[in-house]
Amino acid sequence: MTTTAAADLWVRGYHPAPDAERRLVCFPHAGGSASFYFPVSRALSEVADVSSLQYPGRQDRRTEKGIDSVAELADQAAEALRALDDERPLTFFGHSMGAVLAFEVARRFEQDGRGPVHVFASGRRAPSAHRPENVHQRDDDGIIAEMRKLSGTDPRVLGDEELLRMVLPAIRSDYTAIETYRAEPDTRIGADVTVLVGDDDPRTSLDEARAWEQHTTGAFDLEVFPGGHFYLTDQAPAVIRLLKAHLAG
Length: 249
Prior knowledge:
Blueprint: H1 3-10, E1 11-12, E2 23-27, H2 38-44, E3 49-53, H3 70-82, E4 90-95, H4 97-111, E5 118-122, H5 140-150, H6 155-158, H7 161-179, E6 192-198, H8 206-210, E7 220-225, H9 231-234, H10 236-248
Parallel strand pairs: 2-3, 2-4, 4-5, 5-6, 6-7
Antiparallel strand pairs: 1-3
């Protein structure tokens, strides 16, 4: 597959802004899709060309097999994003699994000599902060129960039994990828890192969020918001203001 063809599969741009001075790339959570970031793209189109990733196995890629390895996801995503190389400064934003994927794609870009200037890691503990988790080993009902508990899945999907059963294999692949991911404490990127977390997130404690600092040689900042794992749904205006200040600066 050519790099351009890979980009067509992986990258969605809902509000193209070719004259913007910066590019923001958004990485969805486990079970998420590119359209989750449609409101972000709309809100930031005046200050950045916003792209979001579409993983295999969902929406217009629903007939494709999911990828159950963060390393493989990062390899393919990095290949696709290289086709967007237009010399504009890159910023990555990822939520939950997307935060880890943004980190791993940043590592690959830095190996090429052109990494992002900033990584916003949302709702995810530091790459080396491991917890034993087994959602990917549950039956379908167990995975659905987890999705309902975290409140990050479109209710239209959860309410459509046929659609839900169709996308469950890809969601299981996502959970397998993130729950089997491991990073050493000395794995670092050079980009500045801002971590965003809900103060009541059952998946990421504040100490686990602060531990991201050891994974960058750049600047580090921690932003805490009211809410749980999907705090950014209710706190979207504040998150967008934060991103806009960075992208316009």
